[in-house]
Structures are given as structure tokens and as C-alpha cells.
Design goal:
mainly beta; about 550 residues
């Protein structure tokens, strides 16, 4: 960082960071990232001066000079884990007001966290602080990057100023799995931060508890939807749709899980394992499945037949008809496809398989035979959602290529015709780490997609032509606390209330506008609506709110 008087400040670390990297033998290959220094260089006299804070020999990540005061410097360590108030262990931040002659340890001086409405950040610290900057428009304010997002301090000169988790619209989360339960909630599995139980996709959701860190797989029992199973560093199951969770034993961490339609049988293939295990006692004990030796298998349960499970690998669909005890090869959908097989609720034996450059195929007889879906030349992910009005089958969503165009496509007629529902400006790099695209089972035309570190992207309504990321919606939404729609469900009318002037629109689940209006303070709406489920969208100067409501 270069000061206004030409003085250059440079920080050093003995590795690229943000942490040491190890090879398969456990040998560090990119530096220990545990030592460093801060130097300044006078560009006029060519004199170097070591200005490292006294007694500190850790690696340094970011450094910034106040553009209006060349003596005011802020710096952050990296890969340095010390107590931060009561929130956990992380890096240190230092402030100098005399060009590095002396420093104040800002974290040790006093640290408090402002979670900014985020439900999961409590107990987590600023870490991997590779960049720190003064706000050039208000140099009392400092912003620092962290492995979990961005933190800001509006007045770093005061010990009492909290560090705000300033990540609305900028979250760095890696979705690894997702389920949408008909008549229930949506659940995500997230790298590092467990995952969440979602009701409103525009609002922060409660995190899974007990927490386990990275969660790689989550599943539910199709005929007993209160029964859930999730796995990560540990495994837990729920009998009340995620209100509470109980611990299970495992034969290995992470991986993918399935739970039989009636909820009585669990299947689990741990990470890097070629063995899939089954349990009939809620994970108290496990037995290897016979006939299934797929590395990194992704077992799925038939949604109707509680004895039937599927797993795809090596170009073959494997099927168990005895609750996971034994698997046998069934049909051949094609080689090189995604191991995430999509079933159809209420339809025994219906399987959909994304074959990447091999296109897209389906089976209606438990994998004995497969039929290619015409017109889809590549397909990386497939998911099902609520059927369109008048349709007799679920809506099919894919990330794929149709007519030489790649994107998110929707079909309401079992793959006969496709409509692109995103655009070139809303691709998010495709399905990323999680490799999923999942339709909402309760809202027609709403679809969720994994990304590479951008959170869960979603789009909805037949009139929407671009996927909107959850983070971007939050960035545009302002304070939801000032916009309310109640009661929900409602009998005759619903009250829409805002502290500011607002407009509102009410849509049915096909995306068709049923009512619009405006108001100040509050209005009564929905009097002419028939019984059913609707989407209310409210816009005001304080932000926007989107809410699903039901009229009885």
C-alpha cells in the first residue's frame, strides 16, 4: 500500500495462504504461513524500515494506508488463531497512527460482533484476513475480508465499535445438497456452515443444530416427511422435520445419504469410500451393502417402495429391492453421467439421469430400460418441482444445452419441450460444487441451483427470465422488519404494512398478476382472491419483500 507522501508499506508471509497446503503424504507444499513482517520503504531516500508490531512474528495478510493521512495504517494477520472476544479464534488487526512506529491491537483492545441479522455467524471469528482496506470516502471505516465473508467497522478509532458481518449480497457459501419437501420446508447442506431450514428464500434461515461444520448430504423419507437424515463431519437424523436432531454413528465422515420412503432404513456412502452401508436402527449400527462398490456413491430411495434403493456408477444403474442389503445391476443409462439420480415423488421406478455430454435420459421401470430425451445435447444436473397448472407430471428442470444454448431450462411436458428460464447474465458458473438443480415442490416455477461459492441461486414465476441469486435479492431488499404481511394464512383479507410508501402485487403460482395496489402505513388486500396459495411482492423505499401466503 502506498501513502500519499510516497511511502510504501509492504507486508510479508512465508506462504501464499490463507493456510498451509499439504500433499497426500502430509508434507506442507506451499509454506507454513506462520511468519512474516511489515516493512515500509521511503521512495525518496530509498530507506527500508521494519515496522512490524513489537513481539509479533506471524504472517501478514492485508495492509492499507489512509488516503488522507499517510501516518494512519491498518494491517491484518493471516492464519493466526487467537481469541476474538467470545466469538472464536481468528486473526488480529493492528492500527497505527504514526506511520508504523507503534501499533494498537484492535481486537485485543475490545471485540464485539454485530451479526447483521445473520443466523449462523455467532461463534465464528474473522479469519484468513487476506485484505483490509480503509473506506476512501470515510476513513474511520475499515473493511476486512474473512473466510466467511466481509466484516466492517464504522469507527476503528473507538474500542466500543462492533465489527459488522457486512455480507448481505456478498456471501461466500458453497451449497452441496438441497431438498424440497412437498408440503414442508426446504433444506440445504452447506460447506463449512452446516446448512439451513428454509421457509422464505429471501430471508436468513435457522442453521441446523447441532452443528457439524461442512454438511455434504441431506435426505428425507418420502412417505414420512418428518424423518430427515443429514451427514457431514457427523451424522444426525430428525423425526420432526428439522426442529430437533439426534446423533447417529457412522462408518466414515461426509459423503451422501438416502432414507427409505417409510423412514426405517438409512443408506450412507462416506467420502472417498467404495462401500455403501445400510442401517435399520437410526444409525446405531451399520452393515455393508452387497453388490455396490462405487466410489463416492450417491444412493437414492424410491419414493413409493420402501424396500427399493438406486445408485448410478460406471454407466450402470444398480438397484436394491431388499432395503439396501443387496444391489444388482439393472439397466444401462449411459456412461459418464452425474451420480445424482432424480426420483419422482409418488412415482415408483421413475428415474432421471443427467449424462453430461451424453445428454439426458429417463426410466419408468426402476432402471431396467432408459429412454433418451430428445433435443438435450448436454445435461449436468436435473431436478423436479411442482407441476404446472393443468399438467399431470412434475416440472422438469435441467442445467443443459438445448438447441446449442446452455443454461437453465424447464419442461412442463416430461421433456418434450423446453423453455430457458435464465439468461447469459445469470449463469453463476453453472451448478458448481453441489451439481444440483431442484424445483420447489410447493411453488410452481420456483427452482434452486447450486453454485461455486455464490450460495443457492433461485428463480421463480413463469414470467421470470433470469435466475436471481438469494444474496442479490437480499442486497436489494433493505430492512424486512419494516414490511409485514399478516395474518398468514388469512380468511378474508391480508394486511400489508410498511413504514413507508409502498406498492404491492399479488401473483398466483403460475406468475399471473391477480391484484396490484399501493399504500402508506397499511392496506387490506386479497378480498377478491379465491382460496389458494399466492406470492405477495411489496416494494418500498426501505426495500422489497417477497412472501408466500395462503388464503383459506
Amino acid at each position: 500500500s502506498v501513502a500519499s507522501d510516497g511511502t510504501m508499506f509492504i507486508n510479508f508471509a512465508n506462504g501464499a495462504g490463507p493456510h498451509p497446503e499439504y500433499n497426500a503424504s502430509g508434507v506442507i507444499i506451499n509454506g507454513t504461513v506462520d511468519n512474516g513482517a511489515i516493512w515500509k520503504f521511503n521512495t525518496k531516500s530509498s530507506i527500508w524500515t521494519n515496522v512490524t508490531p513489537s513481539g509479533i512474528s506471524r504472517a501478514w495478510g492485508g495492509i492499507s494506508v489512509d488516503p488522507s493521512n499517510s501516518n494512519r495504517v491498518v494491517a491484518s494477520t493471516i492464519n493466526n488463531y487467537q481469541q476474538q472476544g467470545s466469538e472464536g479464534y481468528g486473526d488480529r488487526i493492528y492500527l497505527s497512527t504514526n506511520g508504523g512506529t507503534s501499533w494498537t491491537d484492535v481486537i485485543a483492545r475490545g471485540y464485539t460482533l454485530d451479526p447483521n441479522g445473520c443466523t449462523w455467524i455467532a461463534g465464528h471469528a474473522i479469519h484468513w484476513a487476506g485484505s483490509i482496506e480503509f473506506d476512501p470516502f470515510d476513513t474511520k471505516k475499515v473493511m476486512v475480508t474473512s473466510g466467511n465473508g466481509i466484516f466492517s467497522n464504522i469507527n476503528i478509532d473507538l474500542a466500543s465499535t462492533p465489527w459488522k458481518f457486512d455480507i448481505i449480497g456478498l456471501e461466500e457459501t458453497v451449497p452441496l445438497d438441497f431438498i424440497s419437501i412437498p408440503g414442508g420446508f426446504n433444506f440445504s447442506a452447506i460447506g463449512d456452515y452446516d446448512g439451513f431450514k428454509h421457509d422464505d428464500p429471501t430471508a436468513y434461515a435457522p442453521i441446523h443444530n447441532p452443528r457439524t461444520g461442512t454438511t455434504t448430504g441431506i435426505s428425507y423419507a418420502a412417505l414420512n416427511t418428518n424423518k430427515l437424515l443429514r451427514t457431514g463431519n457427523e451424522m444426525y437424523y430428525s423425526t420432526d422435520q428439522g426442529i430437533s436432531w439426534k446423533s447417529s454413528t457412522t462408518k466414515g465422515a461426509k459423503g451422501k445419504v438416502a432414507i427409505s420412503a417409510n423412514g426405517n432404513t438409512f443408506l450412507h456412502c462416506p467420502e472417498k469410500s467404495t462401500t455403501t452401508y445400510y442401517s435399520t436402527n437410526n444409525g446405531a449400527s451399520w452393515t455393508p451393502c452387497n453388490g455396490l462398490s462405487i466410489g463416492g456413491a450417491f444412493p437414492v430411495a424410491d419414493p413409493v417402495n420402501s424396500n427399493k434403493f438406486y445408485a448410478y456408477g460406471n454407466g450402470t444403474m444398480y438397484v436394491s429391492t431388499d432395503g439396501g442389503l443387496n444391489f444388482a445391476a439393472s439397466g444401462n443409462p449411459g456412461a459418464g453421467g452425474s451420480n445424482r439420480v432424480q426420483t419422482a415423488p409418488g412415482k415408483e421406478g421413475h428415474l432421471w439421469v443427467a449424462l453430461y455430454y451424453g445428454g439426458f435420459t429417463r426410466s419408468v421401470n426402476s432402471g431396467q430400460s432408459f429412454s433418451k430425451i430428445n433435443g438435450v445435447s448436454t445435461c449436468s444436473a436435473v431436478g423436479l418441482g411442482k407441476a404446472a397448472p393443468g399438467s399431470t407430471y412434475f416440472t422438469i428442470y435441467i442445467w443443459g444445452t438445448v438447441n446449442n444454448v446452455t443454461g437453465v431450462f424447464r419442461s412442463t411436458d416430461e421433456g418434450a419441450n423446453w423453455t430457458r428460464i435464465n439468461d447469459d447474465a445469470h449463469e453463476y458458473g453453472g451448478p458448481g460444487n453441489g451439481q444440483f438443480i431442484i424445483g420447489d415442490m410447493d411453488v410452481y416455477s420456483r427452482v434452486y441451483m447450486s453454485t461455486a461459492g455464490r450460495g443457492v441461486a433461485y428463480g421463480e414465476s413463469s414470467s421470470v427470465t433470469a435466475l436471481e441469486s438469494e444474496e442479490n435479492l437480499l442486497a436489494d431488499s433493505g430492512s424486512f422488519s419494516s414490511i409485514n404481511c399478516f395474518p398468514n394464512p388469512f380468511q378474508k383479507e391480508i394486511t400489508i404494512k410498511s413504514e413507508q410508501d409502498f406498492t404491492y402485487s399479488i401473483y398466483d403460482l403460475t406468475g399471473k398478476v391477480q391484484e396490484t395496489g399501493h399504500g402508506y402505513g397499511s392496506v387490506l388486500a386479497g378480498n377478491q382472491l379465491t382460496s389458494g396459495t399466492y406470492i405477495v411482492k411489496v416494494q418500498s423505499i426501505n426495500g422489497n419483500k417477497v412472501q408466500k401466503v395462503e388464503k383459506k
